[in-house]
């Protein structure tokens, strides 16, 4: 390995270490209360070193959420790509995939659920705010498209697909958040089983009684 390659790997490792420290503090204190000085201390770095990597909390928050939301959207598009597949199964897979991810990375669910459009419009740059909002809406849009497909397949009764998608996503994330808070009090696998049961209830609630 060349000196340049080694330095690049060290820089990337330090960047990831900073992001881990920031995620922990944002979860504990909230985005507004956490400071760059506290993040530097958590990461065991001088404040000046932190600012070499990230110029503001805005950049840190965006760097934490944007790749996760983008990865979810790409995965959701893959799940939804098979138009012949039953829509209810695709929706369940989208929700279960999100649940599995957030149980494995509990700090991320706090970041996602702490997002509040009116508050973060003031705290984040316009570019970061618009990008995060775009990605959050994109995942809901995939669910809405699957709900419309389910109506066409005769699985669901006619509905306001977008409003229903928002409700389903928020309910699913609420279940994940509740399980994350209890995950260490139960035997291994309990959180995933609880999320699977919640998804099953959600899907049974919107399916037509005479659906195939």
From TrEMBL:
Residues 35-54 bind DNA. The keyword DNA-binding applies. Residues 12-72 form the HTH tetR-type domain. SUPFAM superfamilies: Homeodomain-like, Tetracyclin repressor-like, C-terminal domain. One of its GO terms (molecular function) is DNA-binding transcription factor activity. InterPro entries: DNA-bd_HTH_TetR-type_CS, Homeodomain-like_sf, HTH-type_TetR-like_transc_reg, HTH_TetR, Tet_transcr_reg_TetR-rel_C_sf. It comes from the Bacteria. Coiled coil: none annotated. PANTHER family: HTH-TYPE TRANSCRIPTIONAL REGULATOR RUTR, TETR-FAMILY FAMILY TRANSCRIPTIONAL REGULATOR. This is Transcriptional regulator, TetR family. It comes from Desulfarculus baarsii (strain ATCC 33931 / DSM 2075 / LMG 7858 / VKM B-1802 / 2st14).
